Amino acid sequence: MAEHAIEKLRAIPLFTDLAGDDAALGEVLAITTERRVPSGSVVIEEGESGDELFIVRSGGVEIRKQTRAGDSYTVVRLRDTDNVFFGELALIDDDRRSATVIATENSQFLVIRKSDFLALGERAPHIALPITRAIARILAGRVRRTTTDMMTIFDALVHELEST
Which of 16, 51, 88, 145 has the smallest count of CB within 10 Å of its CB? Predict the structure, then answer.
């Protein structure tokens, strides 16, 4: 089982810089816990506090956001074969969850608690630092995409206003 879990970690973008280091991946695996969630169950709830990162080991999830009017919409559906994770911001800050995640089928997760990640950083910074850098790269990519999306919306609004 540990060998399969290490292979799963190796495939996750957060651990790209550690992919060739089985010992480091073993250290990461040592701070994970397994969690099984039945289909239809809420894994995390938008607006709640949280201190865990989830790696989808098997199964699938739907990430949902709520509008200010209270309507809910699906942002994305993810499967274990996508080698995905969610909740990574919980390792960095103490803010509330930004979305709701629901299991779309019976699912299994590898879970990393913030306190365990911070302890790993204290005893093995050569492992935690590349993970933190990977989170920073992912967040930077999201900021770039958001900036591009905002400019597209702004340009469309300006065009609409100019044509009226």
Answer: 145
